[in-house]
Queue: 2 jobs
Job 1
Amino acid sequence: MRKHLLLSGIVSLFLSATSVAETVNFPEEIVPLQVGDKKIEHSFFNRVDEVELVPGVYQLKLKYTDLYEQGYDEHQVIDSEPFWVTMTIAANTDYDVVFNRADNAVAAEVFAEAPQVSLQAKGASLGTPLAIIAEPDLTSSINSQVATVQVAPTAATRAAPMAANLQAPVSRPAPNAPSAAAMLDFWWQQASAQERQAFIDKVTKNK
């Protein structure tokens, strides 16, 4: 009986250890839309920029969207079509999704036609390119291991006070990064009428 209990304890400990989720962080230009059959909801106030996954193999739907200044108070939005990649998550490893940001809008439009992103383990110097795949069969069990999705504020929401339990975004230095005003305008254009009114009410209330 004691041997049986000991083995049961070891199995339970193993299962508990393997259920720990690892964090995948996304830059603001690469938007996670879906993990397997689970859609990720974004809003004007909250954009998901990290996802927690237990070790395993996943199929993710992503989208590239970027903003480039064209002159004083002018900017251009570059978007790609949504695309799917396969991502392998190892135990005890957090990751960053990385890509080479184009120097200008023309190059960004070329990139948007065929986005190339990589998965880089925290602390590693090189990432593993993620091949774009055809839209997967979402009935497959390969996508059934999603743990949680964490929400963090975007550049647009920095203009308003954030709830204490939201994580602050990490600034990515870029020599030609758009201004805060341009980013605010960009996200304003993406927002629904209800989200715009909620934003106006929030800013007016905190004057």
Note: The longest strand covers residues 56-71.
Job 2
Amino acid sequence: MKVLLAGLTIIVSVTGIAHAQPQELQEADAAAGQQKAQTCAACHGQAGISPADVFPHLAGQQVSYLAKQIMDIRDEERIVPQMMGMVSDFSDQDAWDVAAYYAEQEANLGQVSDDAAEQLVRGETLYRAGDRALGIPACSACHTPTGAGIGSAVYPALAGQHPAYTQAALRAFASGERVNDPSGSMNDIAAKLNDDDRQAVANYLFGLY
């Protein structure tokens, strides 16, 4: 019950953030973003559904989160070698426009295979309730019960994401290779997950919607 209450407290505090959208988001131009996103299609798909599991789906992602990632990669606050040359000449406006375009696309719907059913029990427990003994809060507190994320808090959508990509992201947070989490909590949380737990959460998220 304490874990659930803690999760609800986080949700309430996050949704209590000012509802006014940032000026950049208000002025984002999805049509312009579609043109600028042409160079992204080879890795992320024409409509943001990536054909390769090493690259994330971008369709349906929160605008604020995706714009931040593009700018962080451009500014080398998040190191993604494959993208450095792609976004090095992006302006902030370009980042918001591209993010707005992908946010309008239909998010991926994954389906987990039957042989992962037993593992999904652990994944669902971690996502919805966390693990008090390990000091892991419920993922749903920040990413919502449906995995849609919270744009006002710059928390990403996770549902339908490639399991391999989700696991890689969690490993990067756990090792400290990635440190651009807007809440500053992901490094600590990810470090408390073992490989089996990372895989369980990633598979559960793949089929969540």
Note: Residues 173 and 187 are 5 Å apart (CA to CA).
